[in-house]
Backbone:
C-alpha cells in the first residue's frame, strides 16, 4: 500500500479495497450463504417411484379421488336434491315478487348518499319544471298504495319507528313520500314576486334542501314522539352540515331573499310531510305543533323566534292531504280545516294560489307580555355555530355587538275577540227582542180576554139590576146581604163579592143570554 503527499505535506493513505460481509438476518440468506441452493431438496425419481409403489392412491387427480369416494361410500343424495329444488323455487318466487315491488333504476351516489334527486335538481344545473318533479317517483306495491290512503298502522304516529342513522346515506321518508314533491308543493303556496321563482327553486329544490328536510323530519319525530338523544345528536350534526353546504352555495345577492322565506318554507314542508305520512294522527298536528315547527326552524336558521301564530297564514289546503278520511279525522280531533268552494284542486301555479282571506279581530282581553332581550349582530345561527365547533373553528374573532330587541314573552288569551263579543251581543239582543215580542203578544191576548170578560160582567149586572127592580122583595133581601157582607170579615176579599150575585146570575140566566145575543147583533 503506497501513500502520497499533498502540496501541504500531509500524508494521504489510500482507501481499503476489502469488503466486510454482514451476517445473514433470515433463514433464506443463511441457506444461500452455506451454498445449499434450493431447500428443502426435491425428492429424486427413485424416491418418488418408491413412494408411488407403497401408496398407489396418493398421487391421483381430483376426478379420480371423487370417483373413488363415490364408489367406496354410499351417500343418499335425494335430500340434497329436494333442498336444491326448494331453493330454486324460492329464488324464482323472490325474483317474481321483487319485480312487482321494486323498480330497477340507477342510484346516484353523492357525498350525502342522496339517491332520490335527479341531476336537474342540483344547484346550478338544468332547469326545474313540473315534468321533472313528476318524474321523481317510485312505483309502489299494492299494499303500500292502500296504506297511503290513510289505512292501517302506517298512518298512526304512535307506531312510527326510526330506521336508524346511516352515516353515508339519508334515511328515506316513510311510506315512500318523496321530499322533492313536498318542497315543490310548498313552493306553490309561497307569496313573493314571480321573478324570484327561478332563483328560489334553484336552491329550495336542491340536494342540500332535500337532505335538510329529511333529517329534520326524523329529528322532530324523535323529539316530539319517540325521544332518543343519541340519534338526535347524530342527525343534528348532519343537519348542520347540510345547512352550511346549502348556505355556501347561495350567491351573496340572493342570500337575503332566500333566508327571508326559507325558515317558514321549511316549517311548512315539515308540517306537510307529517300530515301526508301520518294521516290517522292529525289530532297531534294542532296549533301547538305548528308553533313548535315555526320556532324550531327560525331559531336554527335565524337565531330568533318568529311572530306568534305566523302559521295562520299557511295555505293549509295545499299542505294537508285532500281526502274524505282526513277531513273526518280532522273534525273528530277539532282540527281547523279550510273548506274549499268546489271539489277542484287549486291551480298548481305559483303566485296564483290565493287562499281565502280570514276575517281577523283583535282579542278583547289583555294583550301580550313583552320582554327586552340582547341580540348579537355579529352572531351566527345555531347550525353554523355547531358546524364550526365540530371542526374547532368556532372561535370568534370579532367582539360581540349587542343590541336590545323587543319580543313577545307570553301571549295573552286570544278569545274572546271583539268580533265574537259583538256577535254574542247581537245574539243576546235578538233573543231579548224575540222574548219581548212573544210577551207583548201574550199581553195583548190577555188584555182582550179581560176586556171581553169585563163587558160580559157589566152586562150581567145591568140585567140583574133591571130584573131586581121588578121584584122589590128580592131587592130588600139583597140589601140585607150586602150590609151583612160589609160588616163581615170577608169584606174586600177576592171572589167573595161575586158569590152574592151568583144565585141571581143563575136566576136570570135566560135574560142574560138574550141580552148577549142582542149585543152581538
Residues:
Amino acid at each position: 500500500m503506497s501513500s502520497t503527499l499533498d502540496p501541504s505535506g500531509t500524508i494521504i493513505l489510500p482507501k481499503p479495497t476489502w469488503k466486510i460481509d454482514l451476517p445473514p438476518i433470515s433463514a433464506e440468506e443463511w441457506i444461500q450463504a452455506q451454498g445449499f441452493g434450493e431447500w428443502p431438496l426435491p425428492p429424486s425419481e427413485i424416491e418418488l417411484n418408491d413412494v408411488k409403489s407403497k401408496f398407489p392412491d396418493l398421487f391421483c387427480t381430483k376426478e379420480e379421488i371423487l370417483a373413488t369416494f363415490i364408489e367406496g361410500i354410499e351417500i343418499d343424495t335425494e335430500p340434497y336434491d329436494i333442498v336444491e329444488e326448494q331453493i330454486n323455487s324460492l329464488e324464482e318466487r323472490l325474483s317474481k315478487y321483487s319485480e312487482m315491488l321494486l323498480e330497477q333504476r340507477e342510484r346516484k351516489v353523492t357525498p350525502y348518499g342522496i339517491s332520490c334527486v335527479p341531476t336537474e335538481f342540483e344547484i346550478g344545473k338544468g332547469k326545474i319544471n313540473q315534468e321533472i318533479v313528476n318524474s321523481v317517483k317510485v312505483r309502489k306495491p299494492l299494499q303500500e298504495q292502500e296504506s297511503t290512503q290513510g289505512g292501517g298502522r302506517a298512518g298512526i304516529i304512535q307506531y312510527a319507528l326510526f330506521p336508524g342513522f346511516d352515516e353515508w346515506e339519508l334515511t328515506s321518508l316513510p311510506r315512500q313520500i318523496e321530499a322533492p314533491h313536498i318542497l315543490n308543493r310548498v313552493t306553490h303556496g309561497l307569496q313573493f314576486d314571480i321573478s324570484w321563482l327561478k332563483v328560489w327553486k334553484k336552491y329550495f329544490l336542491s340536494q342540500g334542501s332535500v337532505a335538510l328536510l329529511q333529517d329534520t323530519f326524523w329529528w322532530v319525530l324523535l323529539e316530539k314522539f319517540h325521544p332518543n338523544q343519541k340519534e338526535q345528536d347524530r342527525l343534528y350534526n348532519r343537519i348542520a352540515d347540510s345547512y352550511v353546504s346549502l348556505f355556501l352555495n347561495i350567491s351573496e345577492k340572493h342570500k337575503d331573499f332566500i333566508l327571508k322565506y326559507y325558515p317558514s318554507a321549511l316549517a311548512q314542508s315539515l308540517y306537510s310531510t307529517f300530515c301526508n305520512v301520518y294521516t290517522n294522527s292529525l289530532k297531534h298536528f294542532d296549533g301547538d305543533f305548528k308553533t313548535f315547527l315555526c320556532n324550531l326552524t327560525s331559531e336554527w336558521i335565524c337565531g330568533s323566534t318568529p311572530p306568534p301564530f305566523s302559521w295562520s297564514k299557511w295555505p293549509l289546503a295545499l299542505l294537508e292531504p285532500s281526502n274524505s278520511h282526513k277531513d273526518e279525522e280532522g273534525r273528530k280531533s277539532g282540527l281547523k280545516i279550510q273548506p274549499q268552494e268546489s271539489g277542484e284542486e287549486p291551480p298548481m301555479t305559483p303566485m296564483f294560489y290565493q287562499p281565502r282571506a280570514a276575517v281577523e279581530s283583535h282579542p278583547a282581553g289583555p294583550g301580550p307580555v313583552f320582554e327586552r332581550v340582547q341580540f348579537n349582530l355579529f352572531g351566527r345561527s345555531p347550525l353554523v355555530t355547531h358546524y364550526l365547533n365540530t371542526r374547532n373553528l368556532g372561535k370568534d374573532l370579532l367582539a360581540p355587538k349587542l343590541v336590545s330587541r323587543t319580543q313577545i314573552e307570553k301571549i295573552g288569551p286570544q278569545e274572546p275577540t271583539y268580533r265574537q263579543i259583538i256577535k254574542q251581543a247581537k245574539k243576546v239582543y235578538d233573543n231579548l227582542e224575540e222574548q219581548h215580542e212573544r210577551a207583548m203578544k201574550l199581553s195583548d191576548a190577555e188584555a182582550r180576554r179581560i176586556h171581553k170578560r169585563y163587558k160580559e160582567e157589566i152586562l150581567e149586572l145591568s140585567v140583574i139590576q133591571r130584573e131586581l127592580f121588578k121584584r122589590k122583595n128580592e131587592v130588600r133581601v139583597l140589601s140585607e146581604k150586602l150590609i151583612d157582607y160589609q160588616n163581615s170579615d170577608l169584606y174586600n176579599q177576592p171572589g167573595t163579592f161575586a158569590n152574592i150575585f151568583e144565585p141571581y146570575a143563575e136566576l136570570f140566566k135566560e135574560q142574560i143570554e138574550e141580552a148577549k145575543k142582542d149585543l152581538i147583533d
About this structure: The longest strand covers residues 402-410. Confidence is low (pLDDT under 50) at residues 103-151, 324-353. The two ends are 182 Å apart (CA to CA).
